[in-house]
TrEMBL record:
Database matches in Gene3D superfamilies: Magnesium chelatase subunit I, C-Terminal domain (1.10.8.80), P-loop containing nucleotide triphosphate hydrolases (3.40.50.300)
Record protein name field: Magnesium chelatase
GO molecular function: ATP binding; ATP hydrolysis activity
Record-linked InterPro entries: AAA+_ATPase, ATPase_dyneun-rel_AAA, ChlI/MoxR_AAA_lid, Mg-chelatase_DI-like, P-loop_NTPase
Annotated segments matching region Disordered: 291-314
Domain of life: Bacteria
A Pfam family this chain is assigned to: AAA_lid_2
Biased composition range(s): Basic and acidic residues: 303-314
Organism: Streptomyces lincolnensis
Length: 314
């Protein structure tokens, strides 16, 4: 059944043009949840939200739980049903984090505009897998697991370095060239046109492509924990972290997990340096000292030059 028939009109994941890094980060985080979430940065209109929603539909068959900017503590972690409470019938009301655990993915659009206190709570639950609520007559602790994706437009403000570091991977939306812009226009026009048809070969093929990708992700998820990481690759990751002056040790741990997820996704027998090299920008761009002091999130030739000799064949 097509998504149009289900009443959800989101461009299929397999038909989103470009933004390969954003797609890869979402997929790696799904294959290896301990990575701890994805932060996407980019200007408005770069398909960040479309991609997150399309990905959630593909892997969870549900739209993600979306956190509103004005969310309160009660709405996020849960509280009491107000109407029932006024009748003298205290009844707990689950929050958005529990809903996310049921649906699989929590999406925070414009996370840089959300209260730091709430971002901290959410990231704590993602990293520990435990939601502990001790307030206003509530004393509960629940095990929760869900994927986390945040998006932000750096032109509208940043995130504190402490919060940036808590997101496992960070990717920057790329500007499309003329050919990609052309394909984007064509794809959106085709999609809108196909939605008006009773039956659409275009939508059916897109659904088959999405299903095939989901199956690949599930297979990778099953084998990721058994994919070996040779000691020389672990050592290589530590040296790369030192070269880019990564703040803290979370970056190299996440880079190793992401490299293993990539190896599992590609069906490799073990992690090789090439897997690590591809994920380094995602794991380290937001953990460089210059980024912590308001610098750019871009990962350019200067960053590549810091580590390229490490990955050259002996």
């Amino acid at each position: 059944m097509s998504r149009a028939a289900e009443g959800v009109h989101i461009l299929p994941y397999s038909r989103v043009v470009g933004q390969d890094d954003l797609k890869l980060a979402l997929e790696l985080n799904y294959v290896s949840p301990p990575i701890g979430g994805v932060l996407m940065a980019g200007a408005r209109g770069t398909a960040k939200s479309t991609l997150v929603r399309a990905f959630a539909l593909m892997v969870h068959e549900e739209l993600p739980v979306t956190l509103p900017i004005n969310a309160t503590d009660d709405r996020v972690v849960g509280g009491w049903e107000l109407d029932a409470l006024m009748r003298g019938e205290p009844r707990p009301q689950p929050g958005l984090l529990e809903e996310a655990a049921e649906k699989g993915l929590l999406y925070i659009d414009e996370v840089n505009l959300l209260d730091d206190h709430l971002v901290n709570i959410i990231l704590d639950v993602v990293s520990t897998g435990v939601l502990s609520v001790q307030r206003e007559g509530l004393a509960t602790a629940k095990h929760l697991s869900f994927g986390l994706v945040g998006t932000m437009n750096p032109e509208e403000g940043g995130l504190r370095p402490q919060l940036l570091d808590r997101f496992g991977l960070m990717v920057a939306a790329s500007q499309l060239d003329t050919d990609a812009r052309h394909r984007t226009i064509r794809t959106v026009l085709d999609f809108e046109g196909e939605l008006t048809r009773k039956e659409s070969v275009w939508l059916e093929q897109a659904a088959r492509d999405d299903n095939a990708r989901r199956d690949q992700l599930e297979q990778a998820r099953d084998r990721v924990s058994g994919t070996p990481i040779p000691e020389d690759v672990v050592r290589l990751c530590a040296r790369a972290a030192e070269r880019v002056a990564a703040v803290g040790q979370r970056g190299e741990i996440v880079a190793t997990l992401a490299a293993r997820a990539l190896a599992a996704l590609e069906g490799a027998d073990e992690v090789v340096p090439g897997h690590l090299l591809r994920v380094l920008p995602m794991a380290f761009r937001h953990r460089r000292p210059e980024t912590a002091h308001g610098g750019t999130f871009e990962w350019g030739p200067e960053d590549e030059s810091r580590v390229e000799d490490l990955f050259e064949p002996a």
